[in-house]
Amino acid sequence: MIGPEIERLIQLLAKLPGLGPRSARRAALHLMKRRDGLMVPLSDAMATAAEAIRTCSVCGNLDTRDPCTVCADATRDRSILCVVEDAGDLWALERTRAYRGLYHVLGGTLSALNGVRPEDLSIGPLAERARDPAVREVILALPATVDGQTTAHVVTDRLAGADVTVSRLAHGVPVGGELDYLDDGTLTAALKARRPY
Amino acid sequence: MIGPEIERLIQLLAKLPGLGPRSARRAALHLMKRRDGLMVPLSDAMATAAEAIRTCSVCGNLDTRDPCTVCADATRDRSILCVVEDAGDLWALERTRAYRGLYHVLGGTLSALNGVRPEDLSIGPLAERARDPAVREVILALPATVDGQTTAHVVTDRLAGADVTVSRLAHGVPVGGELDYLDDGTLTAALKARRPY
After folding, report:
1. What are the start-end ranges of the zinc fingers (C4-type) (chains A, B) (predicted)?
2. Are B79 and B135 in contact (CB under 8 A)?
3. How far apart are CA A89 and CA B13, in angstroms?
4. Taking chain B, what is the end-to-end CA distance rounded to the nearest angstrom?
């Protein structure tokens, strides 16, 4: 009893992360009630973004310019590269305003299960960039999962020839976190890496 | 550090029900990684739907034709009108395939808090339709909330002149539901409306 145009809209909305079939229907209804206020602007914003977005040829970030805003920013510290899994993690680090170096987006993590091999990731270009004498440090900001840590290991191996310090993010108690709710691994890591008060 | 096109996309996605600022960012990233596979088709589907969808001039349903598919279907029972809050509730009832009559979409429920008055809802046109001698019954399928029940009361008042039976959905234990998790009101209603086994 729903027209094919609406069915198709619901099906496509259901492919967004965080939306299932039921919430996609709710989202479609919400859009249908706000055709001029939301549906048309959102459609236009998607078309515009799809047209404008490109992958940065230097670091692999997604942006509306190439090189991306970060790579093109002359004030950034070009001696540090921060290696991230994808552009979302890059955005998360940018939001902290705590990092002023450059990035390198791997495009995923190694995964035997999902068939992601080292040659599927941007590891070669990273090794290339790390050979630049201006680069002194490579920070591995990869997920603290098994796949993330395997990836970190492989990346470190590939950086062996380059004259760079390889570091990783600290493990520990999340700021604002209760000890009671933490897993044993994190608590052990936080204890081992304790710092003078 | 994100281009204005991406910022705008995130802002608009965050207006969808079920997506907050954080999940809107994740959805935007998901779309940006699948530009040809999802972002462009979804943009097109929204534009097509926004163009095609109209409000049914008979019942208030949202569909790609007017009168809507339900109102235009000659096999539906024209002696019963089922009154719903919005098109989403109509879809939910249609999915059950348990109802073969027509609908009337009120467009909301009365709400002192949100300033929704009787004249903001499609109550007049409902009274008009109910005066048709072919209509024998009006089923109030309104939410079992305070606002929904106030609306049901006002609608019933407005139907007083018409020669129709007014009924409402049964309250009771949801099928598959555990008694333990039910609120007292529902359990009381289910007990009072008990049926011979």
Report:
1. 56-71
2. yes
3. 19
4. 66
CA distance B56 to A87: 44
Question: A45 and B8 in contact by Cβ < 8 A?
Answer: yes
Tell me the pLDDT tens digit for each residue of B21-79: 889 999 999 999 999 999 999 999 999 999 999 999 999 999 998 999 999 999 999 99
Sites in chain A below the pLDDT cut of 70: 1
Instruction: Dig out the tokens for B68 from the structure.
Output: 């809507």
* CATH class of this structure's domain B62-168: alpha beta
Domain A4-52 fold is: Helicase, Ruva Protein; domain 3 (1.10.8)
Sequence-separated (6 or more) residues with CB below 8 Å from residue A116: A108, A109, A110
Spatial strand order of the sheet with A137-140 comes to A101-105, A77-84, A137-140, A165-168
ipTM of the complex: 0.80
Task: State the residue for tokens 């680090």.
Answer: A93
Element (H, E) at A165: strand A165-168
Q: What's phi and psi for B196, nearest 5 deg?
A: -60, 140
Chain B partners within 8 Å of A12 (Cβ): 38, 41-42, 45
Question: A157 and A119 in contact (C-beta within 8 Å)?
Answer: no
Q: How many residues does chain B have?
A: 197
**Quick one: closest CA in A to B11, which residue?**
A42
Question: Are A39 and A28 spatial neighbours (Cβ–Cβ below 8 Å)?
Answer: no
